[in-house]
Amino acid sequence: MPLVDDCELTLPAASWLPTDDRGIPSGRPSAVDGTPFDFRQPRMIGTTRLDHALTGLGRDRDGRAWAHLAASGDSEARIGLWAGQGYRWLQVFTGDSLKPSRRRKAVAIEPMTCPPNAFVTGDDLLVLEPGETVTHTWGIQAFHNGHRPGRP
Q1: Is residue 74 part of a domain?
Q2: Which of 52, 76, 93, 95 has a CA positioned 20 to 30 A from the CA of residue 109?
């Protein structure tokens, strides 16, 4: 089974959340500029280890933040995950902490309304009063022959 190292990833995030050696957030979001976490332009994952929350999401004209993943050398087909307005964070995981037979075999991208540890920090935490509700939407879409959102 191929590794994610050879996959092309695009993430619309301008900032990433630093963590300590246990994966617990250890500071404020930092700019992705010049870091291994800058996937605003499509590029190979390579050896980048991802188990991070990213924010500062760029959005299309419909308010969706799109992440894309494509197999190496396959510019014709890609998978897109979109997160609606209520999602301000993406948690991205390459599986480096899994047992060797499962390590780096897939990329998990989870839309999140708040960062990890939000119950402690209060950052972007949604607080609902009794009787209040909230609804957010996200989805997955396959693209073929180069067709992407907003493009014919």
Answers
A1: yes
A2: 76
